[in-house]
Design brief:
CATH superfamily of the largest domain: Tetratricopeptide repeat domain
Helix content: 55-70%
Number of strands: 2
Structural class: mainly alpha
Number of helices: 9
Strand content: 5-15%
Radius of gyration: 21 Å
Number of domains: 2
CATH architecture of the largest domain: Alpha Horseshoe
CATH class of the largest domain: Mainly Alpha
CATH topology of the largest domain: Serine Threonine Protein Phosphatase 5, Tetratricopeptide repeat
Shape: globular
């Protein structure tokens, strides 16, 4: 119980301490609040703290209330997105996008995962782990989308093969095999191999 209380207090403190200072601004007759974007280094610290919190929460599951986990995940995603949006040329912008698409995938929200993976693919062609986003999207369009989008499957696998010919040979072999049997659904391919 003490660990749970500590996590909640740490999370609330984290949310209030990472540069989310509000300032009141007048516009016409009404008022609205805007949030200043923290500096990249402050965001990095917040992201690291939230990663540590998520690690501790995962070690304590199933004792931790799912609401707390969801709140920490949401705060983490928002900080990662803010890093990319506010500082797109920062050294951690591409990695932040990578974490966003993987997090959405892990949370079972594939549509958002693909959206952020596509952004990573398009905006950061030199990101070292970009091939993972290509592979992830190929699998998504092959297995998740109904009806299956064969052209998107082809697009991502061919892009991966052409841009990363020196990655793990098993991945290249899997991609080539999938392209050879592109007309078969994943289930049909498994049945054919058995």
């Amino acid at each position: 119980m003490k660990k749970y209380l500590f996590l909640v207090v740490a999370f609330v403190g984290l949310l209030t301490s990472c540069g989310d200072a509000e300032k009141e601004t007048k516009k016409g007759d009404g008022k609205f609040y805007s949030t200043e974007v923290p500096k990249a280094d402050v965001l990095r610290v917040g992201i690291k703290q939230l990663e540590d919190s998520l690690m501790k929460i995962s070690e304590m599951e199933p004792k931790v209330d799912k609401t707390v986990t969801n709140l920490v995940q949401q705060a983490y995603l928002e900080k990662l997105k803010l890093m990319y949006q506010a500082y797109p040329k920062d050294k951690d912008a591409a990695a932040s996008l990578g974490k966003v698409y993987m997090m959405y995938s892990g949370m079972g929200i594939p549509d958002l995962s693909v959206k952020y993976a596509d952004t990573l693919i398009e905006k950061y062609p030199k990101y070292p782990e970009r091939w993972l986003a290509l592979q992830s999207n190929a699998v998504y369009y092959d297995m998740e989308v109904v009806p299956r989008d064969k052209e998107k499957v082809r697009f991502y696998w061919e892009k991966l093969i052409n841009e990363y010919p020196d990655i793990d040979p098993e991945i290249i072999e899997m991609a080539n095999s999938r392209l050879k049997n592109i007309d078969l659904t994943f289930e049909e391919l498994i049945k054919q191999q058995n």
